[in-house]
Amino acid sequence: MLSETKRITFAVLSALVIAASTLAQSDASQQNRTGKAGVFAIVGARIVTVSGATIESGTVVLRNGKIEFVGANVAVPAGAEKIDGKGLTVYPGMIDAATNMGLLEIQQGMPGGVDVSEVGVMNANAKAYLGVNPHSTHINVTRVNGITTVLSFPTGGVIAGQATLINLNGSTQAEMAVVPEYGLVINFPRVATGGGFGGPPVDFNEAVRRRDNQIEDLRKMFRNAENYLRARDAYAKDKTLPYVATDLRNEAMAPYLRGARPVLFTAERERDIRAALKFAAEFKLKGAIIGGQEAWKAADELKKANFGVIYTNIYNLPVREDDAYDSLFEAPSKMAAAGIRFCISTGNDGAEVRDLPYHAGLAGAFGLSREEALKSVTLYPAQVLGVDDRLGSIDAGKIANIVVTDGDLLDPRTNIKYLFINGRMLPLTSRHTDLFDSFKDRK
After folding, report:
1. What strand order describes the sheet that includes 287-291?
2. Residues near 72 by Cβ (< 8 Å), separated by ≥ 6?
């Protein structure tokens, strides 16, 4: 047995080791390397525009954070930094439309690095934009693999809060933001028959009853917000009416109830997706589904509602014992065949968002065409999120998020040679490259 003094000493040393490890993993030095601005011309490269035909040998010119010119016969502007693209391929930066990037650094041992959820069921005023850590180590590890933009969202409660769309470069949230307050995240109530924590299964009818009660609670939240906004609007026009005190949670609902911003519903099973779409129709909400395991089964309702699907299940196992092993791998190809607007996401909290190209590649090995697989992580997420006028393809006027590779972007063997975010050429370094350089020559 350890003496009391030894136990205290051991505890202190353990705490120091954990603290040192935490600091090492969250080292901000990499993220502070924000690259250099300028005018760049990538010459003689194969250009996969995604939105149109591939240019087998062409030039892309980047200026002031935008794609200025792209084509087979583009002149190199005077003073531009010329990059020899012979043997290389130019792609648009990839977009992961469902992450917790910047909100979660280390789940255990560092409470200050966990900011994904708030207490309570109604957190409409919680803004991921304000919680994102621009110096998260996950950011560099992700972007050096060709992912340049992510949607980061909170997860707590039923109405979890507001997601933010960010580029993976910048020293502040404002520098990173593409759409600071993008959309409202709702963890839509589902039919759950599992007992949880080893408890007995719940009768299906009882599970449906519980789900319906939760949906009714959600409906009351929306009705309360509608009534609050009506009362506020009425008071603004007629000050003789009773004053309505500001309620930040209900106030935050305004752009969503009025259709100015989208609502993102997390839902997996067909019945839950259809229920979410019915709820959206009741309140005239626009938006998308996050998750979507069985979205292809609800294609009719999704298309009718003009809802897209942010599919997050490529790395997941089938949920039913009698499901085919590849059922979740094939779901994107089934959505494509059904005509559903969809994209592929990791659904990850940050550490493994870097695997996004391999999620798309795996879907491409199970029915999704090569072109569709690439679009599923470039143009399609931009379309589902409604930002395809700025992101997702190589077109003049769009944000200069560009990746230059020595091979297929979705192939794990491919190396990223150049990376641009908002037109800045970024160093291809991260916590991983630092560790590799530190240990590669040790014997």
Report:
1. 94-99, 147-152, 159-167, 177-187, 263-267, 287-291, 308-311, 342-344
2. 55, 56, 57, 58, 59
Rounded Cα distance, 264 and 224, in Å: 20
> Do 242 and 180 meet the contact criterion of CB atoms below 8 Å apart?
no
Distance CA 72, CA 92 (A): 17
Give me the residues paired with residue 27 across strands: none
Contact 161, 115 (CB under 8 A): no
Q: In a 3-state reduction of DSSP, which class is residue 282?
A: helix
In angstroms and rounded to an integer, the radius of gyration of the C-alpha atoms of the chain is: 24
Q: At residue 294, what are phi and psi to the nearest 5 degrees?
A: -110, 30
Report pLDDT digits (tens) over 23-68. 444 444 555 567 899 999 999 999 999 999 999 999 999 999 999 9
Structure token digits, residue 306: 């003009």
Euclidean distance between CA atoms 286 and 189, whole angstroms? 18
SS3 content of the chain, % helix, strand, coil (to 5): 35, 20, 45
- Phi-psi category of 74—alpha, beta or left, where left has phi over 0 and alpha has psi -120 to 50? beta
Single pTM value for the model: 0.90
Please, which residues bridge with residue 163 across strands? 183
Q: Which residue has the tokens 């089964």?
A: 297
Indicate the helix (H) or strand (E) that contains 216: helix 204-237
Which residue is listed with tokens 């298309």? 303
Three-class secondary structure of residue 210 per DSSP: helix
Instruction: Give the three-class secondary structure for 81.
Output: strand
User: Residue 410 to residues 46, 165, 361: CA-CA distances in angstroms?
Assistant: 16, 23, 5
Q: List the Cα angle 8/13/19 in 5-degree steps.
A: 125
Which residues of the chain fall short of a pLDDT of 50?
Answer: 1-2, 6, 8-28
Residues 6+ apart with CB under 8 A from 109: 18, 21, 22
pLDDT for the residue 429: 86
How many contiguous H segments (helices) and E segments (strands) does the chain have? 14, 16
> What letter would DSSP give residue 169?
-
* Polymer length of the chain: 443
